[in-house]
């Protein structure tokens, strides 16, 4: 065994204890212990995260987390089948360990606008991917708002689905929010770029986007004629269909779900308000027309601005297993108030509000995912487990990747976040490697 390389690995992992290498003066073994092990299956080092509470089976449990080769390891198989043990023990000092957060709707941040046509789109995405690690996000879907067709043709080929790592959070595919949406409920989307597929059906959509290879989610308004055809074709390509920016009634929404739609884009925002005779898209949360075995998920922007706490509580109580926290963050996330962009529009930041310049039309948010988790917990009074799963397990289920993301089950990717009791991020890990940590001097 190369203990030199293990010591090098330790030097990059000791921050899990909240003590920097420079500040720490004690013996190494109090931070991470190098242990003997049997390498009968793999020569890769085995990490044991101790003194922690992990989110597993929908409960926070006092249990160690074992990692090898970027995957969550079953310790029973390690002990009894391999006769092995940990190479490195990491004291998490009673941190909560939850699956890494997944943001399925983020338009940009830190000065980067994903909907801006450039020749170096990848560099902007890389910057955001690196910055959001500090907020516990380990995977995300770069989101493009309604744009001219030329923008899709230029931007989409430059985005690559990729695993995360020290360079930044993983990219799970693009979320295309528009342009096949309602003019009446377009929100901050520019009307002149809205499109319809009434004439050519799915072919119209293909011509507009140019390529769907990098796409994981498409938001559309189901009341547009030929939507059933379009939804069916998108589902064939394993693309999640989300309903939003729409004036659809409940029957139209249910028809879309029967053809494969499984998601709702920022519930309550940019759709008909709930009405007792026809609740519209909101009614999907309690509809009895959802096909057996199918779950309708819905995104919510829990930033204290987009949705009243009472509405958050109402949605969560009605359908807790479908709630997905999203940031809907724009270019201004992480920046000072002022003027910024969202696609082809100028956005003004006033306090925590993002408006289309010169109006009071909300245009995304400047919230981070960890902020949304904390606000959602406080506003709804839900359990810590529910708040964490709304940012991890549920978005993974939306994308059909819950077997490897959004969970700490054995065999899943070792993407996780260490949190304190107030759900502040202490450290972020991807594939078992620490990719971000808070600069702690003392505990």
TrEMBL record:
* Keyword annotations of the record: Carbohydrate metabolism, Hydrolase, Metal-binding
Annotated metabolic or biological route of this protein: Amino-sugar metabolism; N-acetylneuraminate degradation
* Enzyme active site: 328 (proton donor/acceptor)
Does the keyword Metal-binding belong to this entry? yes
Q: What class of enzyme is it?
A: hydrolase
Residues engaged in binding substrate: 188, 269-270, 277, 306, 362-364
Q: Which Pfam families match?
A: Amidohydro_1
| Transmembrane domains' residue ranges | none
Q: Which residues bind Zn(2+)?
A: 177, 245, 266
Assigned EC number = 3.5.1.25
Reaction(s) this enzyme catalyzes, per UniProt: N-acetyl-D-glucosamine 6-phosphate + H2O = D-glucosamine 6-phosphate + acetate
Task: Spell out the Gene3D superfamilies in the cross-references.
Answer: Metal-dependent hydrolases, Urease, subunit C, domain 1
Q: Could you say which cofactors this protein requires?
A: a divalent metal cation
Q: How is the cofactor bound, as the UniProt entry phrases it? A: Binds 1 divalent metal cation per subunit.
* Record-annotated Amidohydrolase-related domain positions: 97-435
Q: Name one GO molecular function term.
A: N-acetylglucosamine-6-phosphate deacetylase activity
Biological process (GO) annotations held by this record are: N-acetylglucosamine catabolic process; N-acetylneuraminate catabolic process; negative regulation of UDP-N-acetylglucosamine biosynthetic process
PANTHER family, alphabetized: N-ACETYLGLUCOSAMINE-6-PHOSPHATE DEACETYLASE
What protein name is recorded for this chain? N-acetylglucosamine-6-phosphate deacetylase
């Amino acid at each position: 065994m190369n203990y030199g390389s293990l010591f090098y690995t330790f030097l990059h992992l000791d921050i899990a204890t909240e003590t920097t290498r420079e500040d720490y003066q004690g013996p190494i073994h109090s931070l991470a212990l190098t242990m003997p092990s049997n390498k009968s299956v793999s020569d890769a080092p085995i990490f044991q995260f101790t003194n922690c509470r992990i989110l597993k089976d929908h409960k926070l449990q006092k249990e160690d987390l074992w990692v090898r080769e970027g995957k969550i390891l079953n310790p029973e198989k390690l002990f009894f089948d391999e006769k092995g043990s940990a190479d490195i023990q990491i004291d998490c000092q009673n941190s909560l360990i939850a699956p890494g957060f997944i943001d399925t709707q983020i338009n940009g941040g830190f000065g980067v606008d994903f909907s801006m046509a450039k020749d170096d789109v990848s560099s902007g995405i890389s910057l955001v991917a690196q910055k959001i690690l500090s907020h516990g996000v380990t995977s995300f879907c770069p989101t493009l708002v309604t744009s001219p067709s030329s923008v899709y043709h230029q931007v989409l080929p430059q985005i690559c689905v990729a695993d995360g790592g020290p360079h930044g959070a993983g990219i799970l595919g693009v979320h295309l929010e528009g342009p096949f949406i309602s003019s009446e409920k377009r929100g901050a989307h520019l009307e002149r770029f809205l499109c319809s597929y009434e004439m050519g059906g799915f072919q119209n959509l293909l011509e507009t986007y140019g390529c769907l290879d990098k796409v994981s989610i498409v938001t559309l308004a189901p009341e547009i004629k030929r939507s059933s055809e379009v939804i069916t074709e998108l589902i064939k390509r394993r693309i999640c269909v989300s309903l939003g920016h729409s004036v659809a009634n409940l029957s139209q929404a249910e028809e879309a779900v029967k053809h494969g739609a499984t998601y709702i884009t920022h519930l309550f925002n940019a759709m008909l308000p709930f009405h007792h005779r026809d609740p519209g898209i909101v009614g999907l949360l309690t509809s009895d027309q959802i096909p057996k075995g199918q779950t309708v998920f819905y995104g919510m922007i829990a930033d204290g601005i987009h949705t009243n706490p009472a509405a958050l509580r109402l949605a969560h109580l009605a359908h807790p297993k479908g709630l997905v926290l999203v940031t809907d963050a724009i270019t201004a996330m992480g920046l000072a108030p002022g003027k910024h962009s969202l696609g082809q529009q100028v956005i003004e930041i006033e306090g925590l509000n993002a408006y289309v310049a010169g109006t009071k039309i909300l245009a995304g948010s400047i919230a981070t995912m960890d902020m949304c988790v904390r606000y959602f917990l406080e506003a709804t009074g839900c359990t810590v487990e529910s708040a964490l799963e709304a940012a991890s397990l549920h978005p993974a289920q939306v994308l059909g990747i819950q077997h490897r993301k959004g969970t700490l089950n054995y065999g899943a990717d070792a993407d996780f976040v260490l949190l304190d009791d107030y759900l502040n991020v202490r450290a972020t890990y991807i594939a078992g490697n620490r990719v971000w940590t808070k600069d702690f001097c003392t505990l």
